[in-house]
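Budget justification aside, the reviewers requested a transparent look at the raw inputs and outputs of the sequence design task funded under Objective 1. We therefore reproduce one unedited record. The lines immediately below are the structure tokens for a 308-residue chain.
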């Protein structure tokens, strides 16, 4: 799979493709059904399969505070898409320039001149263009006038009689229902990043942590979890906190991992963290002494999970 950053990097061999557009946050089983359809059509046309995603996601661009939390960061999403057998992933930077495109500009410069799309698979609720004219009907008409087919991705994938969606997964994560979320994702729930230096407060209370840089403002899950940290193929049971660390006056969301019986140095290393079981919500403690006591209880619960 090839990663393309921006329409200006499109080359001749990328063109005349079957394309789908969306956020694809989490790359869940509903997304996988769409991607299966895209692969099938690409084979029928004998052309490349391509998926267009935006970074940041549009709602993050317009209102970062109100945007939904991310299930997967960009690098994790691209890795998941690679596992779906798509030929190209086009990452479009969602910025003021793209925001100012009206519906015709978007279709003309990106779909026809840029990608020369043969077949477009898109949701009937897809909206685009600064003039708010871009919708499924608009695309359908534009495609008919410019020799490409537009197909609706009407979802038929359900789980326990609920329509599979990223919103449903976020709701399950808010409730701490990791296993149910994994069933809808169709894969493990993971976040990855590079280990960076923190304030090293954990060391002062006997719980040194690996601080994993997420590069996202707001993940979809928060709280304390039993996790498995993977580094260079080796797996380590651990406990993790995703949150702002209110007890020590934290403001930004961080992922901190305390690995059981580990004495190595992970600074600068790239790691992946799989979330296994929700333990509790993050809350503000009265001070470091109460925090130390609570972390010990959390660690015991996590260790019990791995033993059983």
């Amino acid at each position: 799979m090839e990663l393309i950053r921006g329409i200006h990097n499109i080359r001749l061999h990328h063109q005349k493709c079957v394309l789908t557009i969306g956020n694809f946050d989490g790359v869940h089983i509903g997304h996988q059904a769409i991607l299966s359809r895209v692969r099938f059509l690409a084979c029928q046309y004998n052309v490349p399969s391509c998926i267009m995603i935006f970074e940041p996601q549009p709602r993050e661009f317009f209102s970062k505070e109100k945007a939904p939390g991310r299930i997967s960061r960009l690098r994790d999403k691209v890795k998941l898409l690679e596992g779906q057998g798509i030929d190209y992933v086009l990452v479009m930077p969602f910025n003021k320039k793209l925001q100012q495109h009206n519906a015709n500009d978007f279709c003309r410069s990106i779909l026809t001149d840029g990608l020369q799309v043969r077949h477009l698979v898109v949701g009937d609720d897809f909206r685009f263009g600064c003039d708010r004219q871009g919708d499924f009907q608009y695309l359908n008409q534009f495609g008919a006038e410019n020799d490409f087919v537009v197909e609706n991705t009407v979802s038929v994938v359900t789980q326990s009689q609920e329509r599979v969606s990223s919103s449903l997964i976020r709701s399950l994560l808010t409730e701490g229902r990791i296993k149910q979320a994994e069933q809808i994702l169709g894969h493990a729930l993971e976040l990855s990043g590079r280990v960076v230096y923190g304030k090293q407060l954990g060391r002062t209370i006997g719980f040194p942590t690996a601080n994993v840089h997420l590069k996202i403002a707001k993940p979809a899950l928060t709280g304390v979890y039993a996790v498995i940290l993977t580094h260079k193929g080796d797996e380590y049971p651990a406990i993790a906190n995703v949150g702002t660390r209110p007890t020590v006056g934290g403001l930004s969301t961080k992922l901190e991992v305390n690995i059981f019986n580990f004495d190595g140095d992970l600074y600068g290393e790239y790691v992946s963290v799989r979330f296994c079981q929700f333990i509790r919500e993050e809350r503000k403690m009265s001070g470091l002494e109460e925090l130390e006591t609570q972390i010990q209880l959390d660690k015991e619960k996590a260790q019990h999970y791995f033993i059983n």
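The longest strand covers residues 270-280. The mean pLDDT is 91. Computational costs for records of this kind are itemized in the attached budget.
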